[in-house]
Each structure stands twice: as C-alpha cells, then as structure tokens.
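Changelog excerpt

This revision adds worked examples to the README so contributors can see how folded entries look when concatenated. The first example is reproduced verbatim below.
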Amino acid sequence: MSQGWWNALWIVLVCSSLACSKPEAPVTNTAEADTATDGLKLAPPEPGDADDDSGKVRVSDKSVKSRAAAGIDETNPFQDAAKSSPIEAGAPRKSLAGRWILVLTRRAQEQQFIDFHTGIVSVSAAKGDEGRLTAKWTAPSEVLPPAKLVSSEIDNKSIRLTFDIDGGSKLDFQGTLKDGVVYGNALFGNCLPARLLPTKADSLDDFNVSPEPTDARELSQAFSKKDPKAALNALAEFVADHPQSPLSMMAWETSIMVSAIQDSAPEDVEQLIADYNQAMAMWGSRLQQASQGNVGIILSQFKYNPDFSLKFVAAADKSITDESLKELKEQLKIARDGILTVQALRYVESDDVDRAEKAFNFLTKLRGKNPFNPAVLYGLARYQEKAKQTDEAIALYAEIVSLPRLEIFLQNEWAQKPGAPKRDLPSATLVKLWEAKHGKMDGLEEFKDETYRKRVVAFADQPAAESPAGNKLVLCELFTGSGCPPCVGADIATGALEVTYPKTQVIVLRYHQHIPTPDPLTNADGEDRFSNYYHGQGTPTVVLNGAPVNNVGGYLPNSPDIYRGLKTLVNQQLDSKATVQVGVNARVVDGTLQLVANVTGLDQLGDEAKDVRLRLVIAEDEVHFLARNGVRGHEMVVRRMVGGPAGVEPKDGKLSIKESIPLAELKSSLATYLKKYEEDEGIDFPAKPLDLKRLHVVAFVQNDESKEILQTNAIAVTASASSASNAITPASGKAAAKKTPTEN
C-alpha cells in the first residue's frame, strides 16, 4: 500500500497498452495503436494518449505553442485553469442557446489530470423554425483528431451530440443544463464525465486547450496518502468539497477500491456505493449505470466479499439498460466468473467433501476457458494435494512453476490482501511433493521442461489444411525480447500459430532485441531491421507480410486471445494468390552452409519490380534457454540476414542470392557481437546459446516502398547432430544493462 496503491485503480479501469520500450525512447509500438486497418482493434482513443500516428487524442505542437502564447507556465502543473481561460464569466445561462466548449476530463499522466477543450459547439435557432434549436461544430482544437458532428438532439435543457472521429471511432455526448453548465457524459471508448462550458470566444487558438483542472492538486494530494484510512478521509473530503467536479468519479471509485482492499464491512461498502450512485446522478443516467458497472469490476478485481460482490454484480447488470454499454455488461460477466472463482477457491479446501468437489468441478471448467489462470491452477492443485492425488498435484504445481510468470502473478495476487493467510509458494510445494514421491530431486528440472513444452501451446487449434498451390505464404515477424514480460503473450501466440499452420502456409521469424534488458539472442541484423526498416520502438511488435498488427502485448493468460486474433488475420491472407514465387535451396557441405534463392515472375510486377528486394534469413529452429520473462523455448530465432538487412535488388530483370557461409564464421560473428555488447554495456550474459545445428533458411520478396511481402519460402537444414541437450539453459546470473526500465 505504500507505493502508489491508488494507481491500481487505473490498471483495472483503463485499457493501457502492454509493451516494453527502448531505454530513453518513447513507446510508439503498434501494440499501443487504437485503430489500424490491418490489425486487431482496441477501444476508441481517449484524451491524453499521445500517439500522433494512431488517431488518438493528443496535445499537438499547435496546442503547445498556443499555451506558450497564452502565457502558460508549463513548469507549474497545478496552475489556475481560469487564467487565460475561454470560459465565460457572469450570470449563469438559462438557455442552451449560445456557444459552448465541449470539455472532456481525463488523466494524462500518473498524477496529472487534464481538461481537454475539444472545440466549440454553437447552439442557435433552426432556420425556418424559431422554436427549435440546432447545433454546429465550430473551431475544433488540436486535442481531438478531425471530428464531424453528424447529429444533434436538443430538447428544452437537454442536448445530445454525436461525432464521427477520424480513424473510425465515435464520440457521443449527452448532457443537461444546470446552473449555467451542461453536465453530462461522453461515450468515447469508456463512458466518462463531460461538460459543455459557456464561452463567448469563436476560436480556441489563443487559449490553453489542455489546462489542469483547478481541483486536480487536491485530488492528487489525496491519492498521495500512503495510509489507507488517511486516503479514505482525504477522498471523502474531496467529493464533499467538489460535488460538481468531473474528478469526483475517480475519487469515488478509488475510495471503493481502497475499502475493498481493506476488507471493510459490507454495510460500509454498501453505503459508499449508494452515495456514489447518488453523486453520479447529475452526470446522467448512462454514466450512473457505467459507474455501477465499474464498481462491480472493482469488487471482482480486488476479491472483495464474494457473497456481497455477487449480489451487487447481479444488481449492476440489471441496472445497465443503455444499449451503448453492452460491452460493460460483457465485462460484468467476466467479473462474475472472477467472483465465483474466489468463492470456489475458498471452498475447494473445505472439509465439506461435497462443497469441495463442486468447487473443484467449477474450477476445472474455468481452466478450460482460461488454461493459464494461476489462481485456478493453484486451487486445483490444492484439492488434488489434499485428496492425496500426488501425481495430479505435482503436474498442476509444475504448470504454475514452469509456465512464464504464473507463480509471480500468484504471489502478486496474494500480496493484494494484507491480512491473507501465508501460503507456501507452488515451487516449494512442488519440491516437497517430488522428493516425497521419488526420494530425491533427480528429474524435477526435466519434468518442468517437459511440462512447459506440453502445456504452453496446448490451446492451439489442430493443423490446418494445405493451401492451394500458388497461394501467398504468410510471413509473421515478431520483434521480442527475452527480458520483456509483456512479450510473453506474443511469443506463445506465434508459437501456437506454428502448431496450427505448416511452414508451407505460415513462417514465423523472431528477431530478438535488447528491450528492455540485454538479450543474448539479439544480433545486429535483427536490430537494424527493427529500428531502421520498420522504425520500431517497443516490443512486442508483430508484422504480418509487412503490415503491423496492434494489440499484441500481453502475458501468458492473454496468449490465447492474441493467437485467435492473429489466426483471423492469417486466414484472411492465405487466400491471396502470389504474383511472384521464391525458390530456395540450402545444404551444409564440410561445415559450410551453401544456399541459393531466386525469384520468378518479376515481369508480372511492372513498375513495382524496381521497389522489390530479396531477403534471405538464417534462423535457428529452437533455442533452449530460460529467459528472464519465463519463456523456455525460442523457435525460429533469426541469426543472420544474408547479404545484410537491406536485401538484394533486381539486376537485369533477375533477382537472386547465392552465398556460402562457414558455420564456424557465423557462430564466431555472433559471439563477437555479444562480447562487444557486454563490454560496451558493462554487463555479463549468464548464457550465450549458440548451437546452430538445426536451421531454416527463409527467403522472402518485399516491396520496400509499401513494405508488403509478396512471397516467402523456407527450407530446413541440419548442420550436424546437435551438441545441445533438450534441457533448458537457465538464465542465472546478472545481466542488467546500465540503463534499462525497471521490470514489473
């Protein structure tokens, strides 16, 4: 509770992107993009997300300049928002007629909130109908992408405005005039408080369009309280002193979160929720409904009293009648499953045999839906352990211990409840059970390795049918890092693709990066392709046939969803006919890799032929290495781009590569690169896996203008019997670079 406990609320309520970024560089990874024509879709953008290429709401250079012109002191984050303000002073308006600024209030950074002045809404009498009001959207500011007002409904003191936002999202505002201000809510990704504030200005160019709310300092001070009781008192004072503040929603929900963490009495939590519901009435029915849904999610996430939480979630679900909140209702179903899981985890160790068995059966069904829920796996393991089913218990504990970061997630979950009973870690219990069964520890590490291989991609669909001859293959390029925790989801999801699709349909290449920590599987060619060709900044990044895919960041529990999203995109591309074909051949003779690749059909490309390049990649089939992020097996690891990352361009109407590469030279060059990196960064890699016995040579043709990959082909090469065992090389030792982000 002493390190920014309040920020946990935003983990629950805000859909933040998962990615690791280069040290000292902004994250502009595709995993953060909200919309992309070729990628998986995230929720619509929210104000304050700074990514100019994604269509997100942002504070632009123009806005920054206008702030400077208005005399805004950027060094003071809590300056008085009324200074240089376009908001009209004077007697409150009694009618909706006039100019209004549409203001959306959102968190911009961890402890900073912004009033985003999106533009001016001008309300006036409709032509030919003096009794009816109509609205026009004028003077939009730079905090929104281009927006078009497509409809307006004005009735007495109520108004509804619907906007189309560039990038395919919508903004829907509903509000009612009260005391000269239109209080309401906007559906823009999430449902959030929003206002129409009166103005006489006809443009926002000379004003600060992204000021701090005047009460932001007070709320941040409440958030900064390290003692839960002090925080609750400060938050209660805030909502009492600022009943009309849009920040009150954050204050109320944080109060409920802290109360849930502290296991406050149900009657106290019930009263807090009732007061919150009443406070939200002024912001409109839709936000009132959304706030109750948010509370249900909070109670589930922080594992508050299951009986109370189940009752509340059922009531919240019934209260949500607004059709636009259907996604929230779906989230409440997930919350309900979470609450039932907490309940089952309590019952599974019960001395009541019937109750324990029912709980076990429920958890078994949940495991089928989400095979990587560590709490569910632990509950099942405890049941089997108590039932003296030692083999079954060992298998379940081994999953928690061997699969990436599951034991860490379980530890973090246990730490949420300060007063929870202390339990042995699954790794300690596994050792105890294994030694009791076998009388010694021999074989345990091999068993964990085998458990990993067996379970990590067990969710993958069965192999697909072959594509018709002449169809385009899909090249999936994953830029990842062995020290990148949110890369795990993409690593495992792309591994599942390799189970589902043969290499005549889908080829996955993994280019490792030193992001966020040093990675012994990285090489200069992979770095160049990521940074200079695709201009990447964050891992994981996935590129399918040259097109970036968003929403690929995540942990092991996210991998089935990432896999399904990628699978949908792959299937869309497998039906495409290839314009060109790539032939590739390779063999090892006396320790030298001899390879040749050529392209046919260039004449079919016309003017496009000048832009295409042939690239040839040497990839190692599998590297056995226990990475810092918990991934134990790394498939199709790129070791070199033959001829360099730039590839080969057509010459005299032909496109081909022919090379002979001594494998000893390849291994030596990789070792030299890693040694230099160690010297430059002052680190020591604990392991440098360089077996290079089982390889694939992958050739692909790419249009460097559009980045589209036109065709791909691959061939397997066995250099000689592998000198490496199937045992996983542990990542022991210290390999932290001088300047890397702290791993969470």
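The second example, added in the same revision:
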Amino acid sequence: MGDGTSIPSDRGRLRQAFQLVRALVRHHKRTFFTAVAGAAVFAACTVLSAMVVRLIADEVSGPRFNEGSVSAREVVVVLGALIVIGFVRAAGVVVRRTWAGRTTWRVTESLTTEVIDRLTTQPAPWHRRQSTGDLITRAGVDAEAATAVLGPLPFASGVVVLVGLSSVWLLLTDLPLGLAAVAVFPGLIALNVGYQRRVDRYYKTAQDELGKLSAAVHESFDGVAVVKSFGAEGRETERLATIARRLRDARLGAVTLRSTFEALLDGIPTVVNILLLVGGAYRVRSGDMTVGELTSFIYLFTLLVFPLRLIGFTLSEVPHSLAGWNRIRELLDEPVVADPALTLRRGTDGSVVLRDVHFSHDGERDVLHGVDATIAGGRTVAVVGATGAGKTTLLHLIAGLVAADTGSVTVPPGGARLVFQEPFLLAGSVRENIALGVDVPLDAIEAALAVAEAQFVHDLPAGLETELGERGVGLSGGQRQRLALARALVRRPTVLLLDDTTSALDPTTEAKVLANLRAALSQTTVIAVASRPSTIALADDVLYLDNGVVLAHGRHDQLMSSVPAYRQLIEAFEQDRARRRGTREVQPRPTLQVHP
C-alpha cells in the first residue's frame, strides 16, 4: 500500500476498482483469498443444492404421489446429500464472513498505521500548514471508507462464480427458459455499473465535505475562547452549518439514487421470476420439462436474486472506497519535507551559537533579523522582549522546529527539548504523558517530578496511573506546566527551552523550580522566555530582543543600568503585575443566588 500507487481519475471505473482492491489486499492476500475460497464453496454448493432439489421432486416426491411408494434408500441418499451440501455450504459462509472481516480489519489497521507513520515523518513546519481535523479524518474515517469495499467483495466474487455455474445449469436444464433467465444477468450487471457511475460524484463530495467539517469543528473547539471573546459564535455556527448542509445534500443525493437502484434491483428479478414460472408451466404441460426441473430452475433463479443485490452493494461501495483511498493517497504521495532539526549544526563545547540568523514566516518581513548570540553551556539565560520581539521564534529555531532562512544555528549533541507555555496533555495516565511511549524507569520519573515541583501527582486518586482526561482537564494551568516540564526532564536534555513555561506558577514555586533546575541540571543549558521580573533576576544572563534584533546580552543588573529600553520594559512588567494584583484584590467575591 505504500508503493506510491495512485488511482488516476481518467481510468475506467472497473480498472479503478481493480487497482484499488489490489493495493488494499497486497499485504493480506492469504486472509483475503481464504474468504474468496469460502465464497466459491458456497456458490458451488448452491448449484448442487438445486440439483438435489430436482432429484427430490423427480425421484422422491413424484414417485410417492404417482406410484404410492418410494424406496427408503432413495430417500436417505437424496436427503443425506442435501444435508451434507447444506453443512458444507454453511461452512463456506462461516469461512467467507470470518476471513472477510479479518481482511477488512487488518487492512484498515495497516492503512491507518501507514498514514500515522507518514504524519510522524513530516516535520513540524509541514504540520503547521495542515488542518489537524483533516489529518485526523484521513487517518480514521478515510481509512475506514477506503476498506469498506473489502467486506462484501469475497461474497461478490462468489456470486460471479455462482452466476457462471448457474447459467450453465439453467441452459442445460431447459434452453429456452435458460436463455430468458440468463439474459437478465447482463441487464442487472449493467444496472449496477450505471448506478455506480452516477453515485460516484456524490460519495466523493461527501467524503471531501466530511474532511472539511472535521477540520472546521476541530478548529472551532480549539479556538473556542477566541470565538467567544470576539462574539463570533453566530458566524462560526453559520460556517459549520454551511459545510454540514453540503455534506447532507451529497449524502441525500447518494441515498436517493441508491433507493431507486435497489427498487429496480428488487423489481426486475421478481417480474422475471413470475414470467419464468408461467413459461415453465407451459413447458411442463407440453412435456419439455419435468416438475423437478422447473422446481430446481425457479429455486436456483430465486437464490440468485439476493447475491446479485450484493454485487450492486459491492459496486456501490467502490465510489465510497475510492473517495477515501484517493484522499489517503494524496497524503501518502506527498513528499517528506526536510526536517529543520537536521539542518542544525552540532557543536562540541555545549554552547548554543546563532550567527546572522534571519527568519520570516511569510517570506517578506523578518521576525528575526541578523541575530548573533553565543550562550555558554550550563548557563541559565532569560530571553526578554516585548510582545512580537521574536522570543518564541528564537526558541523554535534552536529546537529545530523551523529552519532559518539564512545564517546558522549550532546546538550541542543531543539537541534541545522545548516546553511550551500552553502544554498539551494527552487523555492517558500521568505516566503515559511523561513517558510518551518510551520505557522510562520509575526513579527517573520521580526525579523529574521532584525537579519540576510536581509531586502533587501522588495526591491524585491513582497516582501516576491517574487518567487525566482530554488535554489534562481537571488540572490547573500550573499543574499542566509542571507535568510538561517533567516530560522534558526525563529525557535529560542537553538544552532545555522554556517558552514562558512557569508563567502559571506562583513566584515561590517558580523560584523553587528554577533552583531545582540549577541543582539537578548543572551541565544543561536552560534558555527561558520570561516576563516576570523575579524570574529574570534569577537567570545567569539575559538576552534582550527588540523587533527581532539582539540589543543586549548580559547580566540583568548590568542591563538595568546600561540599557534604558530594557529598564523601561522591566518597569512596565512590574507595573502590569502590580495592576493585576490590585484588580484581583478589589474584585468582589461571587455570591450564590438561590431561586425559589
């Protein structure tokens, strides 16, 4: 499935279906063809059962009514054959359904794993350009849609065998009636193919709109605070409603077309069956057919009606599966973007060095402009600047999340670990959030929790095994930040990057965390974006950024006395925090309103 095979839209539908099935089952051929074999056994037994029905009518029932007796041995042999064929036919059904289900599950798993592997291969800048909701849809809904055709496919292949064997049997039983019955099959197949062609566009539209809706809902939930802050609830609701209406219209179109198709697929064989019964009665009266031959003839034709419906069902799943498959192929065929982390230079002395670094998000305006800085190994450096100065972008460059447009970034061997201001926690346990799939010893986890002042986890109901819920719901902002810090610490980073990571902590806890970092990671370089004066004062050095340029690099007290712009910024920070404290102190306490 990962061979880059795509399904070109200009090929015929049957060729598309063949290419799709071949791509899906190539890694699970044994289970798929086991299901096909079970379906073939079912088809052969169905035709054999029609032969036995003929024998029952002509060799058992006929003599009993006409002559008054029938050989017991004849009854035992015929009924025994019918029972044996029934058991073998049932075994074929069990094998077909069991292995068809296994094929679908395994191929879906393989396809989903391949999509996830490709997503994890792409670097962070690629993910920034994608919609998270759309990527989730491709790994989940689209993978399930792509494999939907595999469920009924073995039965459909058995139906092809059944139609072939039945056609031969019907023609041998009675040529005129057989020709009339067999002539219906191409018409029903043409009806199926015509339906599949017309419903294709509805399924493709529905699958695309489902991806858009998933992406829009994910964005809306992610930015719910922004939406509410700007009073954009109505506009966001209308945006989602518009996509939902397009999805509804596409699915209604498919359902309407399918209902018409199924009505014809039911009606045509029923009418033909009545005509065959009338024609067969005349053939029996003229002596050209026996009652047993007519009985087996009608019996077999009746048995074919439902399998032929399944061919239609299988063909109707082809557009649905093609829509999901093509969306997945778009993702898998997209080339892997170069990882910015691979472009970082690796130093040998433990220092982080930036030389004439330029970076812009849009290719026009530099966020960082000619940054030159050397941060010695083992130092704690505070990155300070006004909003929009480029502090977070600087950390992203050092972490290798983005690549510099020009210039060079050198980091020590082992790379850097970045802890964001708004940490993302998974819905799993505390242990899983810290380890992130790596086998981390318990003592390493405990040490990281101690440094991050996150021992509160031991007070949770199940300690390290406590399930946190989506995004760590139930934890405070400071608790989430400390868990994210512990997650970075268990990996013993050479460079630890803190993007205002301790902003939600009280000053006392923050001072403890920084002191712990100094004591436990004496050889680790800590670069922290900070806006709290008390935090800045605890750093060894300060890197002062202004509009993407390093204006000063030195000790906090030196910059306070020698750089007026820096002093004014720190004073502004202090005034802002004092104003916030005052606001919190005078804010009235909420009262509980009791209504009768």
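Reviewer comment on example two: The longest helix spans residues 233-285. The CA atoms of residues 168 and 596 lie 83 Å apart.
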